[in-house]
UniProtKB/TrEMBL annotation:
Reaction catalysed by this enzyme: ATP + protein L-histidine = ADP + protein N-phospho-L-histidine
rRNA-binding found in the keyword field: no
UniProt name for this protein: histidine kinase
EC number(s) on file: 2.7.13.3
Residue spans crossing the bilayer: 29-49, 55-73, 80-100, 106-123, 130-148, 168-186
Tagged with keyword Phosphoprotein: yes
PROSITE patterns: HIS_KIN
Listed InterPro entries: HATPase_C_sf, HATPase_dom, His_kinase_dom, HisK_dim/P_dom, HisK_dim/P_sf
Domain Histidine kinase residue range list: 231-446
Database matches in PANTHER family: HYBRID SIGNAL TRANSDUCTION HISTIDINE KINASE C (PTHR43547:SF2), TWO-COMPONENT HISTIDINE KINASE (PTHR43547)
Keyword set, alphabetical order: Membrane, Phosphoprotein, Transmembrane, Transmembrane helix
């Protein structure tokens, strides 16, 4: 109810003083003062009629006519500055006449002169302040000099002392009310403007924060783009150059059968490595450019491990690495089939790559009531403390395996992203010189 009353009051004053979107603060304040002055004049007229001040009543009625005119010019014709000037002229003319008709300095006219000056200084153009103060001083001083030298020009008009003091008290109260109304109006306007300025400042700060966040996001995208170009221009070109070199040797027919067989084996290794690199690159680029669609369904975990181990067993055998796994045949996890395949392939491939000849890579699975924990443990070279902090980020650098196998530093980042998409997790433990163990957790299928 209070909000409706406040809204209704605001609408009422906007109709009287003008729409804030169309009128300036000074123009609306002038209109406000005109309305308040008109109301206060009605009170003065009522008091003057009550105490039989016929002349004063007539003067007040005459003052309402120019007041109505300047209000019309300001509110409906938007001629604000002319309205202020006309108000000053009519006010000083009528108040000067009233000074002689209403007991001079013994009456309430001096109060009204002061109120008029406050009004002109408050709402008038600051360039005219000196004019209004000078005019006010000259007029009031002249009237007092005339009264002092020619007291007969100012006859007493009050029927008794009580009427005079009542008129003085009412005029003083009206003057105070006028000053309070205009001061309160201007202060309220200032507070509203200050609040709007604060809101705009907060909006600008928020907008700047959004722009900063967008710039940060763009910077991240640029880093990813540069990383992608680096992989394409260097890491992918390196194995292709090796394959081309081997093919050129074979095409020259200068190799014996043993050398050809060794090159063919090396070509197979390079081709598999390049295939893995391309698959990682294409999978990661797809997620960055087109987003990710995740299909979480129950899958047999042993089938995944057997497939990945089968694909990597020949590479492990060439390095003399023993590749083993131990998984319950009926164990099912909730996962995305393609994503989990890529994660396991990268973890096993890294374990073989960074394990010396004659080492071991073991894949094991343990469970709790609701999750499966798969580990890929190797007896390789481990991960240095400097590399561990950036292992799952784009900051990680390309690395070489124990047989100079090239790593692009992208596989583990993709593994981390893919595990997050599957409501899983990935972490590691590593001791430089002794090996590493990577862990993956996924929710178990509920039966």
């Amino acid at each position: 109810m209070t909000d409706r009353l406040r809204e209704g009051r605001s609408t009422f004053w906007n109709r009287l003083t003008g729409d804030p979107e169309e009128f300036s603060m000074e123009n609306r304040a002038f209109n406000f003062v005109c309305v308040v002055t008109f109301f206060l004049l009605l009170i003065c007229i009522s008091i003057d009629i009550y105490i039989s001040q016929t002349i004063m009543t007539t003067v007040m009625l005459l003052l309402m006519l120019p007041l109505g005119l300047v209000y019309y010019l300001s509110r409906y014709r938007k001629i604000y500055k002319i309205g202020v000037t006309m108000f000053a002229i009519f006010s000083y003319a009528v108040l000067s006449l009233n000074f002689f008709m209403n007991d001079g300095s013994s009456g309430p006219t001096i109060y009204l002169f002061f109120v008029t000056l406050i009004f002109l200084i408050t709402l008038g153009n600051h360039k005219h302040h000196f004019v209004w103060i000078t005019l006010h001083t000259v007029i009031v001083a002249t009237l007092l000099v005339i009264e002092y030298n020619y007291p007969s020009l100012i006859p007493g008009t009050y029927p008794d002392r009580a009427a005079r003091y009542l008129d003085l008290a009412v005029t003083y109260a009206i003057a105070v009310s006028f000053l309070f109304a205009i001061t309160n109006y201007l202060r309220g306007y200032y507070y509203r403007k200050a609040r709007l300025a604060d809101e705009r400042s907060l909006a600008i700060i928020k907008q700047n924060e959004q722009i900063s966040a967008q710039n940060t996001e763009l910077e991240t995208v640029n880093q990813e783009k540069n990383k992608l170009f680096s992989i394409i221009s260097h890491d992918l070109r390196s194995p292709l150059d090796s394959i081309r070199g081997y093919l050129e040797l074979m095409s020259n027919n200068v190799l014996d059968e043993d050398e050809k067989n060794k090159i063919q084996e090396e070509l197979l290794v390079q081709t598999k490595y390049t295939t893995d690199l391309l698959m990682n690159l294409m999978s990661w680029a797809k997620t960055q450019m087109h987003g990710v669609t995740v299909h979480l369904v129950p899958q047999n975990l042993k089938a995944f491990v057997e497939e990945v181990a089968g694909n990597k067993r020949s590479i492990a055998a060439r390095k003399g690495i023993k590749l083993t796994y131990s998984i319950h045949p009926d164990l099912e996890v909730v996962c995305d089939k393609d994503m989990l395949h890529i994660v396991l392939r990268n973890l096993v491939n890294n374990a073989i790559k960074f394990t010396n000849e004659g080492g071991e890579v073991a894949i094991r699975v343990t469970t709790t009531t609701d999750r499966a924990f798969l580990s890929v443990q190797d007896t390789g070279i481990g991960i240095s403390a400097e590399q561990q902090a950036d292992l799952f980020t784009l900051k990680t650098r390309s690395t070489y395996g124990t047989n100079r196998e090239k790593g692009i530093g992208l596989g583990l980042l993709m593994c981390k992203e893919f595990m997050d998409y599957q409501r899983g997790d990935i972490w590691f433990e590593s001791t430089p010189g002794k090996g590493s163990t990577f862990f993956v957790s996924l929710p178990l299928t509920r039966h």
